[in-house]
């Protein structure tokens, strides 16, 4: 096997990369995106501010650009994301809503988007980042107006229109066993007991060398699998304090290998997606000044030690 996608397939997993529309003018970038990866996630194109810029007016142009590329390269697509506190349109955040109004708006948003991509998007991040680090609910617009039941409702509404899509909850800092992942464990257990269609848990995996490798990643993946949901690593990247020395890149490579391995050994872990594949297009430097070099390819699209370490752990 020559590609990460092919190597992962031997383990019945996918190996994917997020992408974003501004990158679609970069031919060298697209060649690797289409050639090396078996799955993709639009980094921004399916978010609420983009897909429903005015109330009830939907625009899937950017998302369709990603869908067409994925189709041409036989890539699976993860839908990201239906309900999130970030990147919401101003018409939604700029006024207050009664619970009844917001329920109707939320239901229409979810069902219109899921229906549009029915049969083409196989995994949906239905609710993204619902918890705080201490395991309490994040006080989002949805939580504050609708209470915690918005999560079950969102899952049910999505399931109604596309019963075959795998519906996920997704978050960061839930890679290992900690208060936040415990909160998801309890919630998913309850949702399953209540017959709510939750079918997956997404570990974003935005790691930073300075914070250490999270404790108990494999154990954490396994406990969700044992609850009866699949697990996906959805947004993996591992940032370092710049400059990136050979020593830091070696540690980063070992971390990528360890994280991918933790997924490989759990049957119900379905695949790994990195949050774009090249440092050229990583979100990190704009949000964490002085940090970066988080992805397996450098800014010139040259594979780094992390790329080789991932290949090796996949058996290549
Ligand atoms: O669309 C505008 C464009 O019109 C403008 O010219 C440009 C100037 O800065 O900004 C553009 O918006 C940017 C948007 O990405 C689209 O490129 C925003 O400023 C920027 O903040 C936004 O960042 C995205 C971030 O989510 C926002 O929360 C990143 O690209 C995206 O990779 C990141 O992804 C999130 C996941 O959805 C959830 N998990 C964490 C992850 C990393 O933050």
Automatic annotation (TrEMBL):
The enzyme's E.C. designation: 3.2.1.8
Catalytic residues in the record: 235 (nucleophile)
Domain GH10: 1-313
Class of enzymatic activity (EC top level): hydrolase
Record Gene3D superfamilies: Glycosidases
Reaction(s) the record says it catalyses: Endohydrolysis of (1->4)-beta-D-xylosidic linkages in xylans
InterPro entries: GH, GH10, GH10_AS, GH10_dom
One Pfam family here: Glyco_hydro_10
Keywords: Carbohydrate metabolism, Glycosidase, Hydrolase, Polysaccharide degradation, Signal, Xylan degradation
Family: Belongs to the glycosyl hydrolase 10 (cellulase F) family.
Protein name: Beta-xylanase
